Amino acid sequence: MSGHSKWHSIRHKKGANDAARGKIFTKHANLITIAARSGGDPESNPALRLAIENAKKENTPNKNIERAIKKGTGEDKSAAALVEATFEGYGPDGIAMLVETLSDNRNRIVTGVRVAFSKNGGNLGENGSVAWMFHRKGVLEITLENTKNTEDVEILAIENDAEDVIIKEDNTNNTNDIEIICDSKDVYKLQELFNKEGYNASAKVSMVAENMVKVETAEHAKKIFTLIEALEDHDDIIAVHSNADISNEIMEKVLSE
């Protein structure tokens, strides 16, 4: 979890060309489609509301969002049947990885995942090999200037049933990156609470590893990100999760190379 989100956002900003934007829109549409299977009304479906909000933050067109909702609810009868599948494996140096996909062609996605792992220092595992390490959780992300008190965030999170609060200093930008882990059903409620208190909190539902593995070098981190990029470049892959714990210091070294 730690490090991946920051790399993901920086990569999107640097790759803001038409092709990169198209991939971002496709992934958001797939996430909306999955959420809409539980109901197409955002007011009564918090998961869909959150998926739409995150899509709009990255300027996904409204027509894409509307089409994705119709696919999820079954209203779009012409849409190809989409099947969810999760793949498990190990990245460089044994980092556990969980890959969530949504595709209308299982053979295509199996081949794509296998090739990405084999070409980038990873190994595709059997069902159950790493899934037991991960749990679906709500994740809030807040960035604070390091002149502001992070204890206020911790107290507010704990008072509202957060399960964990992770704070990492970013000395390059003079900020603190804060991750708040909570029950997945509470993530939208907590996001609203923090935003009302003046914090700019982003939220998502993600697979969070029970035990993280600290990445000690920029070289190791770069290998992990190379595999993650290879996987995320595939349109059918909607999310890649790992148990890699990458510090901001290591992150800056990777980005400076």
Summarize the structure.
The chain is an alpha+beta fold and 257 residues long. The protein is built from nine helices and ten strands.
Protein architecture, described:
44% of the residues lie in helices and 25% in strands. It has nine helices and ten strands. The strands form three sheets. The protein has a four-stranded antiparallel beta sheet with strand order 3-1-2-9. Strand 5 and strand 6 form a beta hairpin. Helix 2 (18-36) runs antiparallel to helix 3 (46-57), helix 2 runs parallel beside helix 4 (62-73) and helix 8 packs across helix 9.
Annotated CATH homologous superfamily of the largest domain: YebC, transcriptional regulation domain
Give the number of domains: 3
For the record, give the distance between the C-alpha atoms at the N and C termini, rounded to a whole number: 22 Å
Helical content (DSSP H or I, runs of 4+): 40-55%
Largest sheet: 4 strands, antiparallel
Q: What's the shape?
A: globular
Strand order of the largest sheet: 3-1-2-9
The average pLDDT value, as a whole number, equals 86
Low-confidence stretches: none
Strand content: 15-25%
Structural class per helix/strand content? alpha+beta
- Separate helix tally: 9
Radius of gyration: 18 Å
What is the architecture of the largest domain at the second tier of CATH?
2-Layer Sandwich
CATH class of the largest domain, please? Alpha Beta
Helix-strand pattern, N to C? HHHHEEHEEHEEHEEHEEH
- Total strand segments: 10
CATH topology of the largest domain: Alpha-Beta Plaits
Detail the topology: elements first, then pairings.
Layout: H1 4-14, H2 18-36, H3 46-57, H4 62-73, E1 83-90, E2 96-103, H5 106-119, E3 123-124, E4 134-145, H6 150-159, E5 164-170, E6 175-183, H7 187-196, E7 202-209, E8 213-214, H8 218-232, E9 237-242, E10 244-245, H9 248-256
Parallel strand pairs: 8-10
Antiparallel strand pairs: 1-2, 1-3, 2-9, 4-6, 4-7, 5-6
Helix pairs in contact: 2-3, 2-4, 8-9
